[in-house]
TrEMBL record:
<keyword id="KW-0547">Nucleotide-binding</keyword>
<keyword id="KW-0067">ATP-binding</keyword>
<dbReference type="InterPro" id="IPR027417">
    <property type="entry name" value="P-loop_NTPase"/>
</dbReference>
<dbReference type="GO" id="GO:0008820">
    <property type="term" value="F:cobinamide phosphate guanylyltransferase activity"/>
</dbReference>
<comment type="pathway">
    <text>Cofactor biosynthesis; adenosylcobalamin biosynthesis; adenosylcobalamin from cob(II)yrinate a,c-diamide: step 5/7.</text>
</comment>
<dbReference type="GO" id="GO:0043752">
    <property type="term" value="F:adenosylcobinamide kinase activity"/>
</dbReference>
<feature type="binding site">
    <location>
        <position position="91"/>
    </location>
    <ligand>
        <name>GTP</name>
    </ligand>
</feature>
<dbReference type="Pfam" id="PF02283">
    <property type="entry name" value="CobU"/>
</dbReference>
<feature type="binding site">
    <location>
        <position position="69"/>
    </location>
    <ligand>
        <name>GTP</name>
    </ligand>
</feature>
<keyword id="KW-0418">Kinase</keyword>
<feature type="binding site">
    <location>
        <begin position="55"/>
        <end position="58"/>
    </location>
    <ligand>
        <name>GTP</name>
    </ligand>
</feature>
<keyword id="KW-0548">Nucleotidyltransferase</keyword>
<feature type="binding site">
    <location>
        <begin position="9"/>
        <end position="16"/>
    </location>
    <ligand>
        <name>GTP</name>
    </ligand>
</feature>
<feature type="binding site">
    <location>
        <begin position="38"/>
        <end position="40"/>
    </location>
    <ligand>
        <name>GTP</name>
    </ligand>
</feature>
<keyword id="KW-0342">GTP-binding</keyword>
<feature type="active site" description="GMP-histidine intermediate">
    <location>
        <position position="54"/>
    </location>
</feature>
<comment type="pathway">
    <text>Cofactor biosynthesis; adenosylcobalamin biosynthesis; adenosylcobalamin from cob(II)yrinate a,c-diamide: step 6/7.</text>
</comment>
Amino acid sequence: MPAHCLILGGQKSGKSRHAEAMALRWLSQPGREAVLIATAQAWDEEMQERIARHRADRAVYASGLQTVEEPLQLAQAIRRCSAPQRLLVVDCLTLWLTNYAMPIDVADADEATGLRARRAEFQAAKLELLAALQSAQGPVLLVSNEMGWGVMPMGRAVRAFADELGLLNQAIAAVCQQVLMVVAGQAVDVKALAHNAVHVGNDQGPQPGAH
């Protein structure tokens, strides 16, 4: 297993289940541990039910996976939990960003100021996360949504969120040794494909008409 892996996919693509399967393969070796760092917060009744369902599923499919709930301080959780024989699974970066993008405790009169403060807070947390990954003692799997292939959202706030998530995914991918794209439960190694494509292009040499 590579040191760090970013697992991308759309809604219900199977990305979380794939991360759990990778964790189970890791746990199959003696002396190893695995910890899930869950970023979800129960904002409403539907989210409460979703979280409960994920817990029940993990109890069946990944019973050896310990769980730590951390909606905001993700870098600190990685530093605290990381160890050479312990795999960390972050599920997921999309909800982590959502927790910063939804300032529930900000009054309407101070909404603009509160949103700017939250954005600045997230940018600092993002840099801390990247630093934590680079210094982590053990492997980390990070699950995130790929939102850039759908219809462009109409609302400005949703467009800004999609942009921010895309930039976050790019930054995380740059420090991960492997990037997987999960489609309909099937995982494709994106970095391996990109690496092979570069080699194929170099082997072919200059194309006719190329300058």
